[in-house]
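Hi P.,

Sorry for the delay on this. The queue was packed all week, but I finally got your sequence through. Input first:
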Amino acid sequence: MIEERYELAAGRIREMRTEETVRSPFREYFREMAGFVGMLDEVRMKLADGTYQEQGIQKLAEWNRRLYQDILPDAYETSYANPSYAVQELGEGYGQILSFLYTELRGAVAYVFEQKTEYLDILYELLIEIYNLFEEETPKDEKLEQIRDHIYWYASDYCDVFAADRIREQIDPEKSFAADIIMNSDLKDLRYLYRFGEYISENELRTARHLDGLPEDVIQKMADVYTEGYREGFVKAGKDLSKKGVVEIRYVLGFERVIRRAIENFAKMGLKPVVNRSAVSVLTKREHLKNGYYGAIANKQFDYDHRSDQALFLDKKFVERKLEVIQTTYEHNREQAGKVAGPACIDMFGEEPFTPVQKEEVIRLTKKQEELQLQFYSRQSQIINQYIRGDERSFTIVAYPVPEIGERYEEIFDDIIRINTLDAKTYERVQQALIDALDQGEYVHILGGCGNRTDLKVHLHELKDPKKETVFENCTADVNIPVGEVFTSPVLEGTEGTLHVSKVYLNELQYRDLEITFADGMITDYNCGNFEKETENKEYIFDNILHKHPSLPLGEFAIGTNTAAYVAAKKYGIEEKMPILIAEKMGPHFAVGDTCYSWSEDVRVYNPDGKEIIAKDNAVSVLRKEDVSKAYYQCHTDITIPYEELKRIAVITKEGREIVLLSDGRFVLPGTEILNEPLKNEGK
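Then the structure:
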């Protein structure tokens, strides 16, 4: 039946290429869509008969570029995937909707490679339905309403297919499309990269080549750091890993040699892998963010332009429908979901910093829809935590550079391996000296220098029993690799002032002159210097840091101690390209949103010295005891001030005594001087 539906739909779409039943300019649009589907059908047939896999790497690269060429930067300006061009060619109203349709149709690339024929049926039938509407002569407003209706019912009717399958792919190792490629391919033959259906750039190819050239012991070491960090996350949090059976692996293509060894390591812990693709449908994506495995991002502007396409159908009824599907799917897979231990992530960095163009033509959420979306994310998190409990799961994340980082890529890569494997015991001792000082404080005063306008007081939790309790966690190399930070959940009341950083890169977006003001720990104002108009700057921050919340609390304050990473970044001139994972270890950092302990605040956590960490809640997160929907924001964004922009960090005691930790970008607290050693060699 599914195959019959496919043949009927594909056949009807082929007819679109020569029909004259739709007037211009829409005729040209649908012909291009039909041409795209025709190309996918050709790939599908080649995959089915094995001829695709047998092609040489050059031919595979040509096919890969054909599949993505319409959204690559050099073609995007005249692509219907670009809302600005679509509106220019097709008119206001039609342009936005048909650009969305094309974007949704592009998800078919993944479905072809995964042989999800039912998904292709659904998408192709949607295209045909909307094409049929354009064959009829009806007033514009009426036709737009008809199109919106079709899109709405597409989203509503098939939510139980797309959203439900998405959940199963995140919890069930039997959904093994990517894992099979990783474990069964000849990784020396880079043709395997083209079997995923993702866009493959020089970054992925060169990364795979570089890893192929590394000795086996280095690859094993990289895998061991990754998997041991994951295991240690459970040990240090007092969580029982033996109860679990599934690890969710998230990574960027090119690292398969490491991932294969990691999967073998996880198997020894009793964990099977789920390796699911980053979502490609508006029904499963969260804005432009990536969550799963993926290849090269063909065009970040394209992803950003379509981040709010849900606005076409997002209403209370749809939210309730999707939440029902999520709840039902988890309930039907309760036992399997309970086995999920959490994600293990390999991130990448080094791409050119991206600042999006803010376009008038893109689809936007209304204020009411923004509120609905926030409600959805909150309730979704509650459902997930019901079946994959926060107090039973953990995670780990490590990052490596991509070749785009520069000519010294191989040298940088090797340096990052060194940084990711620094001696944790040394940092543990030094960081304890910092914690001993911090535990004496009522608040911490952070003051910027060298043009940095930061002037911020961070209020600390009070210790009832200093001999047994501590405020800061001594973080070595477990869940967040590499080593190098002490962190806490601040007391919101009394936390006030301004946080400023000249340049920072967050969630693949660049911010210049980012400035955030706090009062009683909550954001009261914000701005940046990315755009000429202040309104655009504020919208940029509201969308991508506040994630459309009116305000966010300061969920974390930390002091990074990894001066070796800082010096390496300066040495190669890659400071602004460093991922937050490493950058947060290169100075004090401040996270807005949820605390580091969200969903597991009641789990007792201890530092290596045996003291219990008591600063896990704040005035917002504690609301979970009354109404969990008021306690969490489903976001956590770290913002780091580099050492060179620091004038001073000092602990202020109740008595008014000042304990200086850092002065002019150097550690001055006794017992921490060793952290300055790498800084002495800065620039060499």
